[in-house]
Amino acid sequence: MPRRPPTVRTDTEETRRAILQAARQLFMEQGFRAVTTRMVAEASGVKQPLIYYHFADKEALYLEVQRDYAATCRAALERIAARQSESVPERLRHVARYLRQAHQMNVGLYIHEMRHDMQATTRAELSDLFRVSILAPIMGLFEEGVRSGFLAADARGVTPRLATYMLLSAVTNFPTPGQGNETSNDIAPEASDAVVHALIYGMVARPPFTE
Amino acid sequence: MPRRPPTVRTDTEETRRAILQAARQLFMEQGFRAVTTRMVAEASGVKQPLIYYHFADKEALYLEVQRDYAATCRAALERIAARQSESVPERLRHVARYLRQAHQMNVGLYIHEMRHDMQATTRAELSDLFRVSILAPIMGLFEEGVRSGFLAADARGVTPRLATYMLLSAVTNFPTPGQGNETSNDIAPEASDAVVHALIYGMVARPPFTE
DNA sequence: CCTACCGATCGGTAGG
DNA sequence: CCTACCGATCGGTAGG
C-alpha cells in the first residue's frame, strides 16, 4: 500500500497530472522561487493543500516536473539525432530550433536554481537528468561529426562537449521578443540556425565550404 | 536639499558604499529574489531598516548595484578592446577570461530577473546598461574584425551581434567547479579561450589558419 | 480532497 | 541611524 487513499477519489491520477502540467508551465516560465504553491493550485484548479497530498513538498514537485520535462526533451532530441538521412549540421539545426521554440527553457536559470535552491540529493538527480536527456543527445551529434571526419575532435579545446554547452546556452538564453517584454537587446527566434553555423564554421572570412 | 540628514551622521557615504558592496556580492551570487534585505544588512554590518534610508526599496538597491557593476565592466571591457597592439582574437580571449573570472555573472539569470522581477522603468534601464556597458564593447571587437577583413560580416546570419551573445552566454553560464557544488557537468574555467576559438574558426575540420 | 490555520519570514514603515 | 513593529504572503500541517 503505497499511499493511504483520499476521502474523495474522483480521478486522483488525472488531478496529479493537472498539477504537474500547471507546475511545469509555471516553473519553466518563472523559475522555482517565483512560483508559489498557491499559483500552481489555482492554475490546476485545486486547493493549495492538495498539492501536499500528491507531492511531499515544493521541491519534490519541481523535481517531478523536471523528470517529466527531461523525458520529453530526451525523446525529441534522440529522435532528431537518429535521422541518418540528414546531415549532422541539418540535425543540429533541428535540435537548436526545437530547444528554442518548443519550451522556454533557460539553462542559466536552471543551473542557478540547481545550485542554489535544491538539496544535495535533488541537485545530483537534476544534474544527471540534464546530462543524460539534454547534453548527451546533442553531444552525440557533434561526436558523430568528428567520427565522420567532418569536425575536428579537439581544436584548441573546442570539444563536442564545449560545443554542446555553447549551443545550449546560446539558444536558451537570448532574450526573445514576445509577451510585451520587448527590449532593444532581443534576438530573433530564427537565430538558432545561425548559432549552429557559427559553431561549425566560425566567423572567419574564407571561401564557403559545403556540407 | 536632496534628503533630510540622518540623526546620527557618522559616515553616511561610507555606510552607503558598504551596503552597496555587500548587496552587489549577494545579488551577483544568488540573484534578486534569493537575497533578502536582512541578508544585505547583516553582510554590511547595519540594521535592516537603515537600507531604506539610503535606498527607496529593494529594487532601487538592485538597480544601483547594477549601475555600479555595469560601470566596472564597461571600464574593463573598453580598456581591453582598445589595446591596438593585440589582435582581435587576443583581445576577445582577454574579454572572455575577464567575464568568466572577475565576477560570477550569469547572463541567463540577469535576463530572467530583468523580465520577471523588475518594474518597466527599471527593466528599461537595466536593458540599456547591459547594451552599452557589456554588449557594445564586445560587439565592437567583432566589428573591428569584420572591418579588417578577418571576419565575415554576416555569414548565414552569424553577425557580430549574434557572436557577442554567444560568447557572453557561453562564458557566463557554464557550471564551474567550486564551492563544493561540483557536478559531473562542470566545465573548466580555462574553456574561455576555446569559446573564442570556436566562434572564430568553428569546429569544421581543415588545415589550421593563422591569426 | 477541503477548511482552517500554523509559524516563519518577507519588504517596508512609524517614530524618534 | 535604531527599536519596534506592521500587513502580506510563504511553505506546510491538522483534522476530518
What does this structure look like?
- The structure is a homodimer of 211-residue chains.
- The first copy, chain A, has 211 residues and is mainly α.
- Chain A is built from nine helices and no strands.
- Chain A has two domains: 11-55, Orthogonal Bundle (Arc Repressor Mutant, subunit A); 67-201, Orthogonal Bundle (Tetracycline Repressor, domain 2).
- The first copy, chain A, has helices at 12-30, 37-44, 51-54, 58-81, 88-101, 107-116, 120-147, 160-173, 191-201.
- Residues 1-9 of chain A have low confidence and may be disordered.
- Chains A and B meet through helix 6, helix 7, helix 8 and helix 9 of A and helix 6, helix 7, helix 8 and helix 9 of B.
- Chain A binds a DNA duplex (16 and 16 nucleotides) through residues 6-10, 12, 15, 36-38, 46-53, 57-58.
Question: Which percent range describes the beta-strand content of chain A?
Answer: under 5%
Based on DSSP secondary structure assignment, what is the total number of beta strands of chain A?
Answer: 0
**How far do the termini of chain A sit from each other?**
58 Å
How would the global form of chain A be characterised? elongated
Question: Helix/strand-derived class of chain A?
Answer: mainly alpha
So what's the oligomer here? homodimer
Give the second-level CATH assignment, the architecture of the largest domain in chain A.
Orthogonal Bundle
Sheet of most strands of chain A = none
- As residue ranges, the low-confidence spans of chain A are 1-9
